[in-house]
Queue: 2 jobs
Job 1
Amino acid sequence: MGSRSRWLVPTALLGLGLFACSLPSDPVAPATELRTEIVRKPDGTAIVRVTFRKSADDGAGREIVAKYQLMRAHGSDAPVPVLSAEPEGASPGPGRAALDDPSAVPGETYRYFVVAHAEREQSKMTGAGGPSSTSRPSAPIRVPDAPAGSPAIAAIGAPTLLGVSSPEASDGRALQIKFRIAADDDGLVVREYRLLRAEGDGPFRAFRHKDIKAGPADGERERSETIAVPPGVAWRFQLFAVPARGEPVAAATTSAAAAAEPSYFNFSHLWLFFLLALTVALTVVFLYIASQPGARLFIRRIPGVDAIEEAVGRSTEMGRPILYVPGIDEIQNIQTIASLLILGRVSEIVARYDTEIRVPCCIPLVAAVGEEMVKQGFYNAGRPDSHKPQNIQWISSEQFAFCAGTNGIMLREKPATNIFLGRFFAESLILAETGYVNRAIQIAGTGEITQLPFFIAACDYTLIGEELFAVSAYMTHEPRLIGTLKAADYVKLVVGVVLLVMTLLLLPATWSRPAVVPQDRAHAAASDPHCVVLGWARRELACEPTKAAAAERMTAYQRDNPPSGFEQFVMKLVGYLQTG
Amino acid sequence: MKQTLPLVITFLIGTLMVAEFFVPHAGVHELTALLQEWGLVIAAAAFVLGGINVVQVNIPKIARRERDWGYRVVLIGSALAMVIAGFIPASVFKPETGAPLFGKEGIVFTFLFDYVFAPANATMFALLAFFIASAAFRAFRARNLEATLMLSAAIVVMVGVIPVGEWIWSGMPAVKQWILDYANNAGRRAIMVGVALGAVATGLRIILGLERSHLGD
């Protein structure tokens, strides 16, 4: 048995082992014994309360049930989640629990379901984790009609229109309407908000626009909506709150006339503009330095690029072609562009050695440009007659069809050198492993982080990330091209220093707080309506029995712990960098 | 002129596309959208070139009965079958159901796509599992300190992500998550920053006309 055959058995065993371990586990036991009842609130409105026995897996030594969710089905419709349901008493643990549906519409008949969500949701990729399970449906229950003239219908307040202006970074075709929601709008009493608009002093008319949903947004009662409007016209707006039952209530005032004004600079991208300007400025500086007599700009060695000429020489000695794959993405992708520029340089070397280059392409336009690049390379080397147009071949635009075709070329023509430079996806390892089996020298490079490990595992040389973009300049050693590399390196240094300073600024703020919540808890809080994350740096998790209490705690925290001037500065800077 | 005109066009169009990112004005957006549409038209036209390329590369080799010419017959035949099935107007209908036989939504095209192309595509994708196993086996040999560290981290992450990992030790998923969130994330972000700046530098080289290899310089 050869050395490769010896690997076959352990490799297969490893694969089978991983596969077996990744088999999905059983779903959690469902909730049972669903019972429904109508509960009257003090204001006369009716809600549906669903009581149930919790999952048999819940609290049985391992907390494998994370939460319960109420769903309801209208008639024979598929069940949908009851978004407004507060999971009162439905925290994980053994016993019975109840979930309320406050948004049940009077006069309608529903069937209810309870979903027991597993602690770790099942991964679609590996199948790991437990699937959730849905209970059997409850008996149908009819929600009684609300008594006429009940306080719930009569007590809807008016929203307040705060102002209309062009949004930030507007293209000149949008207006932002700011308003405060009705005082008693908790997302249930008010169904939605509607806007009417008037051109100049003309009459108000409804216009085609998505209805604005009710309730606070992220706990804020002051909200804004951005709507598209024709440019060059002044508009006035009137806002209505539409109750769940009854007549819409208008805001007390209409807006002043406002026209959409375009912005000429997107200030949220100022940070990136600064980086770009810095890069351009540094490029100019290095171009000037490079133009000085005797100037030498140092760049570190890139072994993968140094190996290209050696690999071409090997192919020539072996009398076999070189395979160059410029990725599988479109021509407008910067990695494809970088790869095609390198293809021109590589073709020149290939032509000098008088050997053959095969370029299978996934995109027809890449094939067309690639052919020109190869032809130019052969011209530059003074061997235009050696260029064979049929060697630059469009295989297929389908990822795996292209992969199969390229593998076929590798296995039939046995190129001595494979160069994979550009943007690759799942086919990267299939190509690289086929080349490895073929005993070719392999040089790969991509900016796709997910594919880099595959190339590193299967190829002799791998250009990691930015090295791909440096190849063209590195191969020529032209000072004007090296200057751009130096500029990018110095910008990278600036970014690194900014990151370091920001981290140092944030550290004291983090240490000064007692509790730092792990990232997974913070993620959990984002999906748990009972919990809020307090603080701007420490991310303390605070959970309350109800969503309203959690929001109240957040408000109280913000009132009692106003950020210091230093904290405000850092927060502003962090937010600015994140936006940019 | 042969070099200057393309350089000027590249500079103007490139600057405009960069400006669109910073200037939200609708006029700039409309202009760039128009240019991108032109790009799409050129890309669509290139499919015709691609078809011609397939014929130019394969037909002479079939005619000369070069090595493995049979595969090329299958390629040309398959391509022709799909083109014919898709291009025939949907005017011929299956008597029993009334469904069109040809055209993009026709029975023949759908059958070829669903029962020939899709399974073949899935087969190629499925091969990846075995290639990953063989590459992992080779990469995870503890040849030196770095490789041993990588092997250890890989084992923890692999075991931590599957149910059996939690069964072995309840802290395994947390360790796996720590490796992914901190050690792995730091490396990923460093590469991402480098890629982004490398892309900017490459773009600038082309827009400013410093990189001219595509123009024969």
Job 2
Amino acid sequence: MTGPRLEMKNITKEYFGNKVLKGINISVQPGEVHAIVGENGAGKSTLMNILFGMPVIHNTGGYKGKITFNGSSAPISSPEEAMEMGIGMVHQEFMLLPGFTIMENIKLNREPTLPNIWSSIFGEKMRTLDIPRMRRDAKAALERLDLNIDEMLQVAGLPVGFMQFVEIARELDKTSLQLLVLDEPTAVLTENDAETLLKSVRRMANEGISVLFITHRLDEVLSVADRITVLRDGEQVATMNPSEATVEKLAELMVGRKIKSILHKDREADSDRNTQPLLSIKNLHVQMPGEEVNGVDLEVMPGEILGLGGLAGHGKIGVANGIMGFYPASGEITVKGKQIPLNSSIASLNSGMAFVSEDRRGVGLLLEESVEMNIIVQAMQSQGKFLKRRIIEMMDAKTARKHTDRMIKDLDIRCTGPEQLTRRLSGGNQQKVCIAKALTLEPNILFVSEPTRGIDVGAKRLILDLLVELNRKSGVTIVMTSSELSELRSICDRIAIIYKGRLEGILSPDESNAKYGLMMAGALAHKRKAAS
Amino acid sequence: MSDDIRNPDRKMTLQMVAPESRHEQAYKYYLRKNVVPLVFLILCILGGYYSGLSLPFLINEIITRMARNSFIVISLIVPILAGMGLNFGIVLGAMAGQFGYVATANFQMTGFTGFFVTVLITVPLAIIFGWLTGKLFNQSKGKEMITGIILGFFANGIYQLILLYFMGNIIPIRVPTMLLSTGIGIRNTIDIKGMHYAIDNLWKIRLQIPGFIFPIIIPVVTLAALAALCIAVHFLFKTKLGQEFRATGQNRQIAEVAGIKVDRIRILAIIFSTVLAGIGQVIFLQNLGNINTYGSHVQVGTFAVAAILIGGASVTKATISQALLGTLLFHTLFIVSPLAGKNLIGDAMIGEYFRVFITYGVIGVALALHAWQAKQKRR
């Protein structure tokens, strides 16, 4: 076959006016392993969803651009269509039925069947499943991956590594498979498993199957890919051969941004005024699904803004949630030298910590309540503020209103008044209500998770400025978790990078892009492992 | 568990539990899994003992009730495995069956012919009702059970409107004794004496047990129909369609991505269930010989659901044997509890109260357990 197997030309995608892909061009030859690297939110998954015709794309207005497959135009509009054309996809979250056996999963909806009396009356659907053949096919697919496992085992109890292989085996079993998309296949694998997987990827490529390989583990990219495309903020920053690339170069391309470092300059002078940490975290473990923390040690100095960065799924979000008692945690937390019991939101609140959750609409706000109620409810419950005693305790409407009015004015919350329901507010103003709620507790330490997620650009700046102002004027120590590195670098004094649930290192915001990229990809952890 | 998965140093081997503890675990697992049927088995044995009923009488009663009730209980299996929970919407199937009987009673049909025509009328009606129910359930995914219960109430209203107001008024009824004295609306009971035991009496075997006066009577054809149904359901889950039911039940989204037409499969599951319930109700009523026009269908859903749950099924898992065992235990309790209550406490109502309490209690506990398990899973 001549010509590329897949060509994506000038692919553009908007989500509600927000451009997430800006003219991507990718071409993949038969038997080529094409790696796509980029940070979270760079647009990798969106690009693959377009290629696979996922409903989420078409429900949000479709995409612009042209896709050609094997030389003919292919406007893929549904996953079935993509599958029929020979595109297979292994999703980041597993698409396996837990109660089915490996074999049933591999052959899902492609089961070989045998005719019987009923099928001749009621049609195809009443054909009996050909179990022996299903087993044979499944076995063959697993063997192509060098995997020796009983195909009759239930998927539910399998280790994650196996599940990944079962997914790939399912795609391999499709005889028409021409292009396989692997979405971060090694993210959940151990080093050994990852190696096995990379070997099978190469083997598939040698058989003539094209592979699109999405990852942010840069060393893997160099060892397995024939071509590398780097995405950043929906833009295609580079496409190159692995011979031209190094891990450092890729890391810089992946992260690189012109960073508006505006605020932290004036701080250098007084940063050493206090050497006693305000909050110290020792060996923190948090069981937050998808964001597990496996032993973080960290010290927060009074008066600083500490950033927590890292890629999604590595546990940065788990830290604040664990400390605030939202998810089961173990370890040792001391505030001003006093140990705080874990797994108790009240204890954490009483020790002067407050939390602005990343789940604004779920955890952060009572959407059906007024702005006023949202701002005061936590202080009322945990600290007994805004209450007065008239035989029974009642809400003190007057002071509550006074406080709310002040907050609305101070934080510039755009609303029709304290009575407005928070559901009606825009994302930025909802976030301000969340912050106001936390401030009402008069905290010493404020945890802020993903404060700008889902907020438009203008409001983002306002929120960040607000945080800085709080820090400078009221002396609130802030621990901010964010997936957006540029945001962390623009306001934080120090940035701690979390990798695989552990502290990878602490960087100053001025550090080079390459260094950030390496740390987020866990270069140090890999080096340590190699050394030991 | 989750710790294990995430631990990057873990070797790629399946963990094996030591054999002894495995045995013990299997034993405990078995006990925990079957605790509901076991408790009810004990209750039935105690109740049977204190009721003072003779064995042949008890066995006869059980056989009768198994033959007439199992069909409806089995109709719940397909929606459960298709992930739609307990289909309280089978009440609509029962209504279809009763509409069938109103028609055949109106034409004064009798015997097996009458029964057969009733089934012929019931099936298409049940298909339409099932299709509508399935459509509705697709609009309320994840809330099928409560939707089904309320749908039952709503459908009951329409049922009453048709039978109380339309019949004899818009829909002509030939048999005046079926109508109320005003000439509009069906009476409280419909007499279907002509079709009483229409299939039960086709072939009856009498077994004489030595030492007892009464023989045990076995309605062979009814039981054969039940056996055929069990085999058919068993076969269904060996087919492509059955696999699609199961895949949809496990996870809608994944099934969808695999190319299964989930919405269609769900509607099909409900149609299956409604049709079986309709036929089940026809079998049930031919055994009774009369229809409580405004009452026979009302509790079909709750009783069938209670029976299958007592058999050890859950909102997400059910087998044919669970359905049969559940029917057996539930109806044995039905038979013995009033008498046992009378003999123990001197009041038959106490036993009756106890039974009603158990019926709804079991449903409540099963639903609470389901909610709890779903919550555990989410963590």
